[in-house]
Write a structure and sequence with these properties.
Largest sheet of chain A: none
Distance between the termini of chain B: 30 Å
Structural class of chain A: mainly alpha
Largest sheet of chain B: 6 strands, mixed
Shape of chain A: globular
CATH superfamily of the largest domain in chain A: MetI-like
Distance between the termini of chain A: 51 Å
CATH topology of the largest domain in chain A: MetI-like fold
Strand order of the largest sheet of chain B: 7-8-9-3-10-11
CATH class of the largest domain in chain A: Mainly Alpha
Radius of gyration of chain B: 25 Å
Oligomer: heterodimer
Order of helices and strands of chain A: HHHHHHHHHHHHHHHHHHHHHHHHH
Largest interface: A-B, 27 and 33 residues
CATH architecture of the largest domain in chain A: Orthogonal Bundle
Number of helices of chain A: 25
């Protein structure tokens, strides 16, 4: 009996001290080492490289400040900075405007078919940026764009209605592409608002407009500003649109400038690095402001009381206008791009729809794509990378989140910060730093698929962390404590209680990471080597060769695959009861 | 003043099923009175309140305030909540976090486009009434729970509402503060002569605050009456059980006289009891007796005309400080009785129990407890 007490009762002081000593080392040490390796080391190399001249066969690299001189005082400097800022802020404002309007209509009004629209709003996420951009090129390029051709036919002129190869065109495409993110961010903001705050304004005699302006939007303001900053950072990092639409007409922003510097001979890695550092600083600044803001707005935290069914505002006859806006949005963001890809994929060579062209429809391009040399290797690479990456991330994220959310170990915030840091890295900057890092530290992964895995894991770890720590916070601490009281050890507790309860979050995060990994382009573009191409790179190469019809066929197949994946995620989510919030 | 007539409110739940939240709800609240909707969670009391507020759109019925219809299904009237001029305090208080104390209270006056000086005068008057006048500039989120509650009340009062609606206003406060705020609320309500509808699941609040109480169950009002009537003469088993503690003894009616009393054959023997609606000869009933209405004595009691006296055994005792809970056993029936702590009869000893006939309420069991409080229906 006494033995049993000794075993199951509270341990002696020495015993407890030893446990804390051990677990602290393992729990903090291993993840910190991993995260430091992933997030910090490549950055250091990037920084170092920015002070070196190009390394060629004739001349070894030397220390120089020339890169920064070109980056900051070169002829193009000012234009580059201005272009980047205009592009990013234009995109952010446009996306936020669209996203907020849609979110408000969806959450706070009685627009018909809302549920359907919310489900549809997920769909744009399955169209990768590169395909979205190519689709809009096919729609609105001055020469071959379908919209131009159609309108020119209609009015019998050769006036160019839309030119996608302009700053406005770039903002249009990128803004549309990020608008679903703005929609989701603002939806969350509207949902976290206690509806009784609006109801009490209504009981005070305020009209719908007064409530919208003085209560709803005032309360949502921190979220609006925060979303704006997030979108700004996402836009300034985006690579596909500037590369596909800006480069051909000489509109340069930081991401495309980095790409350009690498892809010339000799590679200007040093110059690319100093651009990358500038871009990184801009992003950090944006994220810093955003976190300051969200800290301040935590005062405004409005999640109180019992959750009641949020009351919706009656739009009257205007609700049909709202519904048609949704339809228009859906057409512009999903239907048009997808249909133009489908149309193009069925043609022998690219041409506008006509009876003549209709008679030439064939599936030849699909067979051609399937017969590409190396197609199946590419698919295998993509699958391997996305699955391995998602598995690794979810496991690491589960442990790190547990340490951050559950333990009181001092210094755990460092872990959180480090693991979230890659969120700030633009994909192309991360690709560049990892490239430089493993060029110098030769552990045999340079020019292999593993270097891309490292990049993916680093890049998407923060997403995994968000998924897991949100669900971790929802697990009441007492569930674990009662398991401990029942005699479960830490590892038993983690395996039998924590992981099963986290399952929905882990699964949702896993699928999300798979999806974003398959779409990834901006890191891969600097890291792939022959034989290690992934699907997005294949699309990129097809675009460079001008093989639009084959590109479209491949794009349609990829979109369908991603669509199926998202549907599976939705079904799993519903079965395990993860609400979309 | 407020008149609610045959109100039905139904809505589709998240799973798509229809929730029948308020069913045939009818009541009247005279000017200056406090009327309470009392019931367990999910009984439809909050929905009824929100229907009066206009925050829910009822499916049928009429709601009139001072002769003005704010909702009428037959005449197709629905006045928007912001046009009703009803003050409301929400369970979560719904204090706007981006405004300070003054701004929160001033808001209803600002949307009514009052002059700045008048706003200031009215806001300060109501803040003084709720004793928050020293915190005018304070951020609303930096207030304690009790202060937030008073702020919410001030905001509802400042617009001089025709009707004050309170949705469980005390449920987020801790016990001591709740008692203090209850007294405060009662003082303000009586002082300003506010016609008030109060929603709570707490019987103490309901009994101590109200002029009249409606007990709700499954969407229906099952009894309306003064606090004393609800407590002392429950007309159905649900009310007797939900409000306060009680003993139920099952039995059959053997005789009914015209004066409202009856004889019931129970496991305790023949009991003289008060007959409620629908109690007739041979009806199956339960007799409800409150623990404090069981008088205990070690000496034999000589019964008066209207008394039931029973000989029992002390089965168990709980000492609770200001009183003692006795559990006394008669045959297989255990009754709970509340006694003064000076009574020290040991467990197992015999004891005499007196229950006055007017304290024993016979309630029919074969009528469904949810009948809807509709006088005609009850008679049928």
């Amino acid at each position: 009996m006494t033995e049993a007490v000794g075993r199951w009762g509270p341990g002696s002081h020495a015993e407890r001290a030893r446990w804390r000593f051990d677990s602290r080392w393992v729990l903090i040490g291993v993840p910190v080492a991993l995260v430091v390796w992933l997030a910090i080391v490549p950055l250091t190399f990037l920084f170092w490289q920015s002070f070196l001249t190009p390394h060629t066969a004739a001349r070894p690299a030397e220390f120089t400040l020339e890169n920064f001189r070109i980056a900051y005082f070169g002829g193009e400097t000012f234009g580059l900075f201005v272009n980047s800022v205009i592009f990013a802020s234009g995109t952010a404002v446009f996306a936020l405007f669209v996203g907020t309007a849609l979110a408000w209509m969806n959450e706070r009004t009685n627009t018909p078919f809302k549920k359907l629209f919310f489900a549809l709003s997920i769909i744009p996420l399955v169209i990768p940026g590169i395909l979205f951009t190519v689709a809009w090129m096919l729609l609105a390029s001055p020469k071959i764009g379908l919209l131009n051709v159609a309108l020119q036919g209609l009015f019998g002129t050769d006036y160019v209605f839309f030119n996608i190869y302009t700053m406005a065109g770039m903002i249009w495409v990128d803004g549309l592409h990020y608008s679903p993110i703005a929609f989701l961010l603002m939806t969350a903001a509207f949902r976290s608002m206690d509806p009784s705050l609006e109801e009490s304004a209504q009981m005070s005699g305020a009209s719908i407009l007064q409530i919208a302006y003085r209560i709803t939007f005032k309360l949502a303001w921190p979220a609006v500003l925060g979303s704006l900053l997030i979108l700004f950072v996402r836009a300034i990092e985006s690579f596909e649109v500037p590369a596909l639409l800006g480069l051909p007409v000489g509109i340069h922003v930081y991401t495309s400038a980095i790409f350009n510097a690498i892809h010339q001979y000799p590679s200007q890695i040093g110059l690319a690095s100093s651009y990358a550092i500038t871009l990184l600083v801009l992003c950090c600044f944006g994220i810093y402001l955003q976190s300051r803001l969200s800290y301040q707005s935590s005062r405004f935290s409005t999640v109180t009381g019992k959750g009641f069914r949020p009351r919706t505002i009656d739009l009257g006859r205007w609700r049909w206008l709202a519904a048609s806006l949704f339809v228009l949005y859906f057409v512009v963001i999903v239907l048009l791009p997808f249909l133009v890809l489908v149309w193009t994929s069925l043609q022998k060579f690219y041409s506008a729809p006509s009876w003549d062209a209709l008679s030439r429809l064939s599936f030849d391009n699909y067979f051609a794509v399937l017969d590409f040399p190396g197609f199946w290797t590419t698919v295998q690479n993509s699958l391997f990378l996305s699955l391995t990456c998602a598995t690794t991330i979810m496991l690491v994220a589960a442990v790190i989140s547990w340490v951050v959310v559950r333990t009181k170990i001092p210094g755990r915030w460092v872990l959180d910060t480090l693991a979230s840091m890659p969120l700030v890295f633009p994909g192309i900057v991360l690709g560049l730093s990892i490239m430089i890092c493993y060029l110098y530290i030769d552990i045999g992964i340079y020019n292999t698929i593993w270097i891309m895995l490292v990049a993916y894991v680093t890049r998407f770890l923060p997403y995994g962390m968000r998924y897991v720590s949100t669900s971790m916070m929802q697990i009441h601490k007492e569930l674990e404590e009662s398991a401990a009281m029942s005699g479960a050890s830490w590892s038993m507790n983690f395996r039998r209680i924590v992981l099963p309860l986290l399952k929905p979050g882990l699964l949702a995060g896993f699928i999300y990471v798979v999806i974003v990994s398959i779409r990834e382009l901006s890191s891969s573009i600097l890291l792939y080597s022959p034989g290690n191409e992934v699907v997005s790179i294949m699309i990129w190469e097809l675009w460079q060769n001008g093989q639009y019809v084959e590109l479209s066929a491949l794009g349609v197949m990829l979109i369908l695959l991603l669509f199926v994946l998202v549907m599976i995620a939705q079904i799993i989510g519903r079965r395990f009861g993860i609400a979309e919030r | 003043m407020l008149s609610v007539n045959s109100l039905f409110t139904e809505y589709a739940s998240e799973h798509g099923t229809v929730v029948k939240a308020a069913q045939n709800v009818s009541f009247e609240v005279p000017e200056g009175k406090l009327f309470t909707l009392l019931g367990p969670s999910g009984c439809g009391k909050t929905t009824t309140l929100r229907s009066i507020a206009g925050l829910e759109r009822p499916t049928a019925g009429e709601i009139e305030v001072a002769g003005r219809a704010v909702y009428s299904s037959s005449r197709g009237i629905f006045v928007a909540p912001n046009k009703r001029n009803f003050g409301m305090v929400f369970q979560s208080y719904a204090i706007w976090p981006h405004m300070n104390v003054f701004q929160n209270v001033a808001f209803p006056l600002e949307v009514r486009k009052l002059g700045r000086r008048e706003i200031e005068r009215k806001v300060m008057r109501v803040l003084t009434a709720v004793q928050l006048d020293h915190l005018v500039e304070r951020d609303a989120t930096k207030l304690s729970g009790g202060q937030q509650q008073r702020l919410a009340l001030a905001r509802a009062l400042v617009m001089e509402p025709q009707l004050l609606l309170l949705d469980e206003p005390l449920s987020n406060l801790d016990a001591k503060l709740r008692d203090a705020m209850r007294t405060e609320l009662k003082r303000l309500q009586r002082e300003f002569n506010l016609t008030t509808v109060y929603v709570t699941h707490d019987q103490t609040e309901a009994l101590s605050l109200s002029h009249e109480i409606a007990v709700m169950h499954d969407g229906f009002i099952v009894q309306i009456g003064t606090p004393r009537a609800i407590y002392e003469q429950p007309t159905n088993q649900f009310v007797a059980d939900f409000v306060g503690q009680t003993n139920f003894v099952g039995g059959t009616v053997t005789a009914v006289d015209g004066a409202g009393s009856c004889q019931v054959r129970t496991a305790l023997g023949e009991l003289k009891a008060l007959a409620t609606d629908g109690v007739a000869r041979d009806a199956a009933v339960v007799v409800s007796v409150r623990p404090e209405d069981l008088e205990l004595s070690e000496q034999e009691i000589r019964p008066d005309a209207g008394d039931n006296v029973i000989r029992a055994t002390v089965y168990a005792k709980d000492f609770l400080g200001e009183y003692l809970d006795f559990h006394v056993k008669v045959g297989d029936v255990v009754l709970q009785a509340r006694a003064h702590p000076s009574l020290r009869t040991p467990t197992g000893d015999p004891i005499f129990v007196r229950m006055r006939a007017e304290k024993c309420v016979a309630i029919r069991t074969d009528t469904a407890p949810r009948g809807g409080f509709d006088a005609n229906e009850m008679k049928r």
